[in-house]
Amino acid sequence: MRFVLSSRGEIKVTERRVEIDPDATIGGLVRQLKEDSTRLLRNEFKLAKVEIGENIKAGAWGVLWLALAFGVGVIALVAVTIALASGIGKLANGNMWVGAIAAGVLEIGLGGWLVYLGMQTFGKPSYTLGESREELVSTKGWIERQRGG
User: Fold this and answer.
1) Confidence at 3, pLDDT banded by 50, 70, 90
2) Radius of gyration over alpha carbons of the chain, in Å?
3) pLDDT (tens digit per residue) in 76-102
């Protein structure tokens, strides 16, 4: 099997027939094994390069969409803040400053609550160094038992 990279960036797989020579020597077989191994490594490196390029391209598109979503989110939050401040200001007999302060206090409270939730989520480690060491000792013991030592 042979991997060929086309001009359009596609990978094509071609098949190569294996010829069996009944008069082959050990030296010839070793030489052929070396050549086949070298070819296999070259093809694996080519394939890895293509896959890395595709992964980088996919990652770049992901970052682009994430940045776009962030920008749209910021604009939406500004619009909601203005609408909230205006609505509260109208309820306060046209005192827009009251609406702006109330909207600010609400957003600060919401931000504090989100920070609290984040600290709760990331505050507890999923594993500790001590647990990792215990697991390594356990694994070492298992390996020794498997070896019979």
Assistant:
1) low
2) 32
3) 999 999 999 999 999 999 999 999 999
Cβ neighbours of residue 69 under 8 Å, at least 6 residues apart? none
144 within a domain of the structure (yes/no) = no
Cβ pair 13, 3 in contact under 8 A: yes
pTM: 0.47
Spatial separation of the C-alpha atoms in residues 24 and 19, rounded to whole Å: 11
Q: Domain total for the chain?
A: 1
Residue 113, in any domain of the structure = yes
Q: Which domain holds residue 36?
A: 2-125
C-beta separation of 115 from 109 below 8 A:
no
Task: Classify residue 140: in a domain, yes or no.
Answer: no
pLDDT tens digit sequence for 4-30 = 666 676 777 777 677 777 787 888 889
Tell me if 85 sits within 8 A of 103, measured CB to CB.
Answer: yes
Q: Is residue 88 part of a domain?
A: yes
Per residue in 60-75, pLDDT tens?
Answer: 999 999 999 999 999 9
In angstroms, the Cα distances linking 48 to 2, 15, 35, 51, 117 are 14, 20, 20, 5, 41
Give the integer Cα–Cα distance in Å for 134 and 139.
9
